[in-house]
Amino acid sequence: MANPRHRHTPSRRDKRRANWFKVATPTFVECPECKEPKLPHRVCPNCGTYKGRKFLEVEE
Ligand SMILES: [Zn+2]
């Protein structure tokens, strides 16, 4: 069976874990319609548009 030969040092362990916090941080882009921050590749929850088309009815 493949097993780790040596225990990694705490600094090596921590360097590995330092990366996944970057992935867990949510990314936001500016909506081209209303300039609000929104998730990329998603319909904007503020104005309900994506790629210049309206997908959701938003109460004004
Ligand atoms: Zn918007």
From TrEMBL:
One of its GO terms (biological process) is translation. GO terms for cellular component: large ribosomal subunit. GO terms for molecular function: structural constituent of ribosome. The keyword Plastid does not apply. Keywords: Ribonucleoprotein, Ribosomal protein. It holds the Pfam family Ribosomal_L32p. It comes from the Bacteria. Belongs to the bacterial ribosomal protein bL32 family. This is Large ribosomal subunit protein bL32.
